Amino acid sequence: MTFMTFVNCDLFNAYACRSADKCFYEISPYSNPSFLWAMAFSVAGQLAVIYFPPLQAVFQTEALSLGDLFGIVLLSSTVLLFDTIRKKFLQQYFSDNSRMMRSLLFKRKDSSAGRTRRRVGGKKGKIRIKQKVLVGPPVSGNGSTIRARNVATL
Questions:
Q1: Domain range for residue 142?
Q2: Count of domains observed in the chain
Q3: b vs e for 66-83, b when ≥16 Cβ sit within 10 Å of the residue's Cβ?
Q4: Whole-prediction pTM
Q5: Which of 12-26, 43-57, 72-86, 95-109 has the lowest mean pLDDT?
Q6: Any bridge partners for residue 9, and if so which?
């Protein structure tokens, strides 16, 4: 039952996360056929692991009653309820465009941090300031960050 509950929570979460600002009921379920096929194969694989005897032996699972399945779907579908509450009532705190999220993700640059000064053309030449500015949060799973160079000439 735990396996089924966790997998169903993930499936409901994937269904709810199809849009960052619209609730699950505001988007047509048929808007992404590939997603529906993926969901169907996930549910079929889940049921095969639970009810197909050779897979039951491999994964050490037991067949569940219809009442158990109903309880699992009822419990795991609360993800849709919580996501709807988040999108409808708490959007200012938990959306991609909220002021709070931007302040946490995009730190302001310190005016003196990361600057290097170098004279170009001798003692009386121009001073060139090279500055590395952190632009945003990590964009890939390997922990790398986007960096931009801001080179100003005085």
A1: 106-153
A2: 2
A3: eeeeeebeeebeebbeeb
A4: 0.60
A5: 95-109
A6: none
